[in-house]
Amino acid sequence: MSVRTRQTLHVPPGPQEFPDSPLSRALRQPLLLGVFLPLQTGGWSQSTLPRGTDWTFDYNLELTRRAEALGFDIAFGLSQWLPKGGFGGASRYRENFLDPFVSAVALSAATRRILLFGTVHVLYGPWHPLHLAKFLATADHVSGGRFGANIVTGYADTEPDMFGMTRLDHDLRYEAADEFTAICEDLWAGADNLTYEGAHWSLRGAYVSPRPAYGRPILVSASGSPAGFAYGGRHSDIVFVSSPAGEEFEKAITALPAHVARVKQAARDQGREVKVIINPTVVSADSRKEAQARYQAIMDHADLESIANFTGRHQAGDSRSWLEHSARGRAVGGHLHIVGDPADVTRQLAALHAAGLDGVQLTFYDYLPDLEHFGRAVLPLLEQAGLRTPAEPLDLASPRTPSHPSPYTSPQETP
């Protein structure tokens, strides 16, 4: 039995190489639109100002379906492992937290067009590449090629403790994730049974079938470090970044072009191209004055206790992201804040696109009504600005299965 090495692992084609793949269709939009789901208590905003945002699956299902109907391209959620009470405070911030991987699989079965990404800490607990390769191939078929994995390595010092583990050093975590993902890619390529002896994982005679419909599932990663950018450059279709200059838009927009360029160059160094997205929180209203008043009200109701706990946890970790974000800005949340009337929001999204960003993963304070406002008042302006093309009517009767001949039943492996 031959043992493959890192140099001989097979790499399947990515979904972008299939013109009819759901990812390829989404990437025809000039600016990708995503919604960052509030799968956790308090969503993304540590404020006690009253709102209807809810962590429950039914709420997130309604939100995802509405985003899909509006033409949004992506939906996915955050992953964190927290002790009892989450970050505490008056809001008990993130006390309840639905698993984003399981949630994304369930949401993919209840939708038809939107891409669903499941966030996974691949270095925690008993995860093995064979597990994830099989699970993702299954999710790929459930979704008709719309499922992806947001591969994260974890930065908090407390999370590995929950699994009885010791946190690996920052760059070593990306080395391990690189090996993990490379093994999954070989399994998805399906050239033969895989026997592999590596630094972190071993397999003997392993195989995954059926294989993904479009070469492999969509792969996503998030980082603010050179090691993370190198990992994304080797494996990811989409790289999720934070602002290197904090949440204030005017400061962020001056720093983002060089930051995004570094991410894209890391991929080009590997002979690849990646798309880069960021997470703004949008606070908008019909008038600029009303939007600014609402923004201030959210800040005035900051849950200071939970913010202090969140800040302490982040500072104890070794993340290279969020370093310039203010503690007070956590009341609103997001990598940067977009505040204003629909024209202001459109101008700021256009500025992000001009800075090299390929998309935005939006968060809102009061998700459902804020999403409705965005769809009614902002989307038409984005279309006028050439940043979006109108969404085709959603056919709820359309199948989720791929329309092209499936590569996982090639002539060499006909059942």
UniProtKB/TrEMBL annotation:
Keywords, alphabetical: Flavoprotein, FMN, Monooxygenase, Oxidoreductase
Keyword Glycoprotein attributed: no
Single GO MF descriptor: oxidoreductase activity, acting on paired donors, with incorporation or reduction of molecular oxygen
Domain Luciferase-like residue range list: 34-358
Region: Disordered, residue numbers: 1-22, 390-415
Polar residues compositional bias, start-end: 400-415
Pfam families, per database record: Bac_luciferase
Gene3D superfamilies linked: Luciferase-like domain
Name of the protein described by the UniProt record: FMNH2-dependent dimethyl sulfone monooxygenase
Source species of the chain: Actinacidiphila guanduensis
